[in-house]
Amino acid sequence: MQIVRGIEEFKRAREALDGSVGFVPTMGALHHGHLSLIKSSKKENDYTVVSIFVNPMQFLPGEDFDAYPRREEADCRICEIAGVDILFLPESSSIYKKDEVKLKAPGYLGYILEGSRRPGHFDGVLQIVMKLFGLVRPSRAYFGKKDAQQLALIRKMVDDFFLPVEIVAEETVREDDGLALSSRNVYLSTEERKRALSISRALKSASRLIMAGELESEKIKKRMYEIMKDIDIEYIQIVDRDFRPLRKVAIRNTIILVAARVGKTRLIDNLWV
Ligand code: PAF
After folding, report:
1. Is the CB of 55 under 6 A from ligand 1?
2. Is 211 helix (H, G, I), strand (E, B) or coil?
3. Atom 3 (ligand 1): residue with closest C-alpha?
């Protein structure tokens, strides 16, 4: 595995790859969710590139940019064992210029739900993903369905800018007890982690209700609010794949989205119906 930090060095390493390139962009603190993206990339491409960059532009003032887990040594080992071809670890100063062209997430999709709680967050996500796509020039790029709104915005950017990359979405990976894997789970105390399980329990109960024929969004949400009563719910929303609110669940065209705080930790999770 080549570990590359500089932009020019990366361009040279990329130039030498002759074949399809799968790309897994990450912010590090790699877990099994990232590993499943890497695994798919390796299966479907000649080469796999992983980037680790804690992107300052997608954190709002007061968010956890400084506290975000950084585990470079362990991440390098994980990538090496997983068979990654190039691990790209750029510096912020070489990625961002002083006064540069800025991408802006579209008004609706970029500024509802996560976008309304974290205004500007998706502008920063799109900015870095566009830059990384420009450098990596991947055939396919891999993202988790857990960040459903991010995934939809990246798909839209690829479509709007006619970018020659296929976006591949992978299922959320969970702990045995249901907790969705996230680099931010390390912030949870043992007691908070227990309470956080109500999120996946609520989503499971929504799934059971739907399978039993209950399609009314309000009734499903009510049950979910009850289950999550001991945590600080930011939103529970039932939307279609274009993120328009649904009064009734439409099978194969629905996502149930949850954001909640457990202690100081903000968690998101979802269910694709
Ligand atoms: O999902 C993430 O880890 C980040 O938002 C991404 C896509 C790597 C951009 O910084």
Report:
1. yes
2. helix
3. 26
The pick from 23, 24, 27 for probing ligand 1's pocket by mutation, whose C-beta has the most ligand atoms within 8 angstroms, reads 27
Kindly give the pairing relationship between strand 255-262 and strand 2-4: unpaired
* 240 shares a domain with 107: no
User: Is the domain of 123 the same as that of 61?
Assistant: yes
**Closest ligand 1 atom to 54 CA:** 10
Ligand 1 pocket residue status of 27, Cβ below 6 Å = yes
Tell me which residue range forms the domain holding 112: 2-170
Number of domains in the chain: 2
Question: By the 8 A CB rule, do 181 and 153 touch?
Answer: no
Q: pLDDT of 242-273, one tens digit each?
A: 999 999 999 999 999 999 999 999 999 999 99
pLDDT of residue 125: 98
Boundary residue ending a domain (170, 204, 238): 170
3-state secondary structure of 47: strand
Asked about 34 being catalytic, the answer comes back as yes
Residue 82: how many other CB atoms lie within 10 Å: 20
Dig out the tokens for 128 from the structure.
């870095």
Residue 226's pLDDT is: 98
The CATH number for 161's domain is 3.40.50.620
128 Cβ inside 6 Å of ligand 1:
yes
Overall size of the chain counted in residues: 273
CATH number at residue 196: 3.30.1300.10
Q: How far is the CA of 215 from the centre of ligand 1 (A)?
A: 33
Q: Is the CB of 25 under 6 A from ligand 1?
A: yes
Q: d(Cα 9, Cα 102) in Å, to the nearest integer?
A: 25
Of 53, 146, 149, 150, which is best to mutate to test ligand 1, by the most ligand atoms within 8 angstroms of its C-beta? 150
**pTM for the complete prediction?**
0.97
